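for the writeup, i need someone to sanity check this before i put it in the appendix. the sequnce is what the collaborator sent (i think, or maybe the updated version? ugh). structure was predicted straight from it, no edits. if anything looks off just tell me and ill rerun, i have time this weekend
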Amino acid sequence: MKNFKKLLFGPVIILAFSSCSVQQFAVNTMVQPFENGGKIFGEKTQGKEFAKSGDLHILGFNIQASNTNELVQSLNANSYTIESKSNLYLYLLTGGIVDYKIVKVIKRTN
């Protein structure tokens, strides 16, 4: 019974922590943040035009930074949503030493 509880509550606890690891910012669009879902794992981009990059921080130092302006220009977008998603598993596994964030720009039509 104890093993069953570990199997059941382990993923629930991880999902609870990861729910605060996604942020969205709307730019020149009527689409509100999280309007298309994605509060826990990020918005699905299948069939949508998007570009992504990553930020890497080690011991708080920015080793690799994404440039959202370049991502927006590559999409030729006037209306877009910027989504930032932390990799909480890597952060917890390394005890906070390494933090990797995926930055995604999703092109909007309105």
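The chain has a mean pLDDT of 85. Residues 88 and 94 are 10 Å apart (CA to CA).
thx in advance!!
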